Amino acid sequence: MKRARLFWWLLVVTAAMALFAVSASAEIVDSGTCGKNGDNVTWTLDSDGTLTIQGTGEMKDYSYMDYNDTYVTDAPWGKPYYDQIKKVVIQSGVTSIGDDAFFGCSGLTSVTIPDSVTSIGDWAFAFCSSLTSVTIPDSVTSIDNYAFFGCRSLTSVTIPDSVTSIGDDAFFGCSSLTDVYYTGTEAQWNNISIGDYNEPLTFAAMHYNAVIESPAAYEDTTDGNPSRREFFIKLLPFVIAVLFVLGLALTVVGQMKLSKLKRVHSAAIKDQSTTPGRQPF
Q1: 28-226: which CATH topology?
Q2: Mean of all residue pLDDT scores within the chain
Q3: What SS3 string covers the chain?
Q4: Which region holds residue 169: left if phi is over 0, alpha if psi is between -120 and 50, else beta?
Q5: Cβ–Cβ under 8 Å, residues 235 and 185
């Protein structure tokens, strides 16, 4: 009886874990369009703070605005989400990052840029004060004026040898920038047109012939649902736990059946030993 109760408790715990996994998955908070031509590019923001940009072609250019005495992008995710965005994932197919797109997103710590992007607009990541590192893919040819202006937590940046120009003040105010990883040679770096007031970039330690992580990892494989991959990643530990619990439950059931067979066999032997004229063996 105790083992039977244990079995049912294990099933209850398994069901509760599965329900928790589903309820804990990220939900879409808001969404809309952000393409230069309207709905050619769309965006979604989930409850984990991941802003996903996907589609084909160029993003729309934005400006910045004063919101609660703070300057933030006037993109649709700027108000009231500017300080809730923790991660930006731009999917393959998007070809540009618009002006002021993420201006003032103070909670942003991570950005993924695919190898379909060719330009990063003016003020695109300006004042993203929590951004610590960025890798620019080898499809980008220009980093425009003020692109990373005021990113004071930025410690490293990876720049490909495809870049031919870096605008004025692109890295001005990046006071923590210590390392620049460049995929080309020193001679190629010296041929880049670097605008004024980029001392944090030019004074940082240079690492030539660096290798950029394959952008294939950035491709959209979620069939238009950017949170599905993360959902399954979160669900994986619970699936493993469920399989473990079910295996344990099957073991308990097997032990119960074995114990019952032993009792029946023992009773049969006892019955034979007490029957006159019969021996158990």
Answers
A1: 3.80.10
A2: 84
A3: CHHHHHHHHHHHHHHHHHHHHHHHCCCEEEEEEEECCEEEEEEEEECCCEEEEEECEEECCCCEEEECCEEEECCCCCCCCCCCCCEEEECECEEEECCCCCCCCCCCCEEECCCCCCEECCCCCCCCCCCCEEECCCCCCEECCCCCCCCCCCCEEEECCCCCEECCCCCCCCCCCCEEEECCCHHHHHCCEECCCCHHHHCCEEECCCCCCCHHHHCCCCCCCCCHHHHHHHHHHHHHHHHHHHHHHHHHHHHHHHHHHHHHHHHHHHHHHCCCCCCCC
A4: left
A5: no
Q: Dmax of the chain from CA atoms?
A: 111
Q: What is the pLDDT of residue 227?
A: 46
Boundaries of every domain in the chain:
2-16+235-273, 28-226
Query: Considering the chain, what percentage of its residues have pLDDT values greater than 70?
Result: 67
- Answer with the residue of higher pLDDT: 53 or 255: 53
pLDDT at 237 exceeding the cut of 70: no
Q: What is the pLDDT of residue 222?
A: 46
Structure-block tokens of residue 33: 């369009």
State residue 125's pLDDT score.
98
The answer to whether residues 163 and 193 touch, using CB atoms and an 8 Å cutoff, is no
Neighbours of 264 (CB within 10 A): 10
pTM higher than 0.90 for the full model? no
**Cβ-based neighbours of 31, under 8 Å, separated by 6 or more:** 42, 43, 44, 45
- For 249, the token pair is 């439950």
